[in-house]
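Let's study a protein:

===
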Amino acid sequence: MKTSKLWEHYCGLSSSEIKQVKLFLESPFFNKDQKVRELFSLLHKYEARIEQEKADIGFIYKKLFPKDKKQVDWKIREKMSDLVKLLQQYFCTKVQIDDAEQQTELLDIAYRTRKMDRLYFKSIDKQLKELEKQPIRDETYHFMALQLNKKLFDHPNTSKFSGKRIYDLMVNIHYSLDQYYILSKLREYTETIVREYVLGETYTLNFVEEILAFLSQPENKENLHPQVYIELFRLLKTDQLDLKSFHKIKQKVLSYLDTLSPRNQSSQINFLIVIARLSFKPEIQAIEIHNLQWIGVERGIYIEDGYFAITKFNNIVDSGCTLKKFDKTRKFIEKHVKYLSNDDSIRANISRLYYAYLAVGEKNYDEAIHLLEKLEIEDYSFFIRKQILYIKCLYEKFGRDGIELITKQSEKYKIFLHRKHKSKFISKLDVESNMGFIRFVKKLCNYQFQSYSKESLQKEINDSVNLYGKSWLVEKAAELK
């Protein structure tokens, strides 16, 4: 049961949604099958047993069909399939209820399908007027404008060969298409340059200089969003990005952040973090990144649909520990860990991992090891962080004398990485990054028995582009005697 498609859908529900789904299944408009309702109730009742693999499909079958002496496989499979479809319908309905844009989009489809033309045109015109009020004309704005004008143009009641309206629509469509293409290309090329810096790779960029000239025209100079990308593009290409110019760009972004959706705000903050990460020395980089992260925390933009983005959570804890802001980071964990999972036991395990990070930052390695050894979590992203931190703790506590413990732990970790990569849970890039970390920890342990010098090891670590825990490895290499 735990590996079934139905269980995967069930696990996508929050605790508050369980009651909603029960009401949803009670509605005869959506469901008239009592057995499907009973199946959902059984999933909820035996949730813990299913999660622990103590309740399989056969167990659920006996509860659902108690009078059957023999299991008829198609009967349970049919009910499971029906419940999956209903849960998918619930997900779609929930999105529609929670997302005003989705509601409007579906209503437009309904108006057009039912030939309610007056309401259809009125709805599109209203959306265009609302769109015009947006102060930031980014690629999302122009994509929406393109879609709305295209809806009007494509409607069978819109004359294609006469009248001013058709001319205006064609002009608007071409303008929005050009702007969307130009802004999207500008953003993607800027992010490609960032990737070149981070990974040390080189790409052939077919960026047309006329695009920059076009965006620099007077009518586009008031639009801050593309101007940020233009400025970054030029500074990165000419290696002229310094702290002063970065702060100037940062202030521009912050000046229009309130006009964006939380998701787009998060995207903009993340982009600035990437720029800071590749442009400055580690000590400056850490401060800039931490400050940007806390802008996101204070705005609440990392919490989406009741969940905190796990990568953001990890990075905030990392930067807090790096800067030794332990009290601030501890309060952050206590306040926000509830947004990582609805399950109390999972939250407790996640908390142990983050408190272990704090213990390492405070050089309390015994406490960190104790917390990590109590940690039981299946999620591979948390498992990776646990293993890396555990190996660091062993090295910090035992130094080069811990080579046997570190080797034993590393071998287990390598098997895990290859297995997860084979199952396509982890990318090849991530495997290489983690394997690089293991390799260099072993080199640190074996330093006194090898022929390579401290300087050559430091250079090898510094020259590595894709390497997990690089700053820690650099620090430990510098401590070698």
